[in-house]
Structure formats: C-alpha cells, structure tokens
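Quick illustration, no need to memorize.
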Amino acid sequence: MAESILLQPTEYARLAVDAALDKQASDVLMLDVRGISDFADFFVLLTADSKRQLDALAEEIEAALKRQGASLHHREGNPDSGWVLLDFGDLIVHIFGSEEREYYRLEQVWSKALQVVRIL
C-alpha cells in the first residue's frame, strides 16, 4: 500500500490555484497571511461567473486537495449564497460570485498580506 506524502501549506495553496484555473475561475489571488493571521497560513480567493461554476469550483478544489492528502475541516456557504469557504486548516479557500467578492473585499481586509499569485 502506498503511503500518502503530506504537502506543505504553500503547495496545497498552489494546487487550489491550479484547480481553480482548470475550472476557469477569474481573479484568482493567493495571499500569504503568515505573521498576520493566527488561524491560517494562506488564503486563496477566486471569483465564479455563475452558481453552477461556483459549485464546480468548490467540488474540484476539494477533490484535488483531498487526492493529495489534505483534509477539509469545514465547508461554509453554498452556491445560492454566492460564497463558499473551504477550510483546510492552514489554507482557506474563498470562492465568490462577483457581487459577493466586491461586497466582502477580503483583499482590502487582508491588505498587509503578501500577494503570492494574482491571475486576473
């Protein structure tokens, strides 16, 4: 039986970015929040164009990270709300509809975080 090799939080965050891009997410942002957050190391924020895409993004990111040994601690929200949060412990993924992303403005809330990846 093959042993699972756990990745570092930065590698999980990059996997989430790659999975989001594979499903055509827009405005993908990876933030390094180490040193300014005591509950996570990285945030990945992305925008979906529809409820259907939001659901597909959440499912793909969750599956991609689980295949690499990550454990989903908590899932919050749903496509109808325009926002889904996937909590993998050291990595938090926020999937927004465009209106919800503008409303919550997490980039501004976490403006002291280092932007590791930004793909518009």
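The chain has four helices and six strands.
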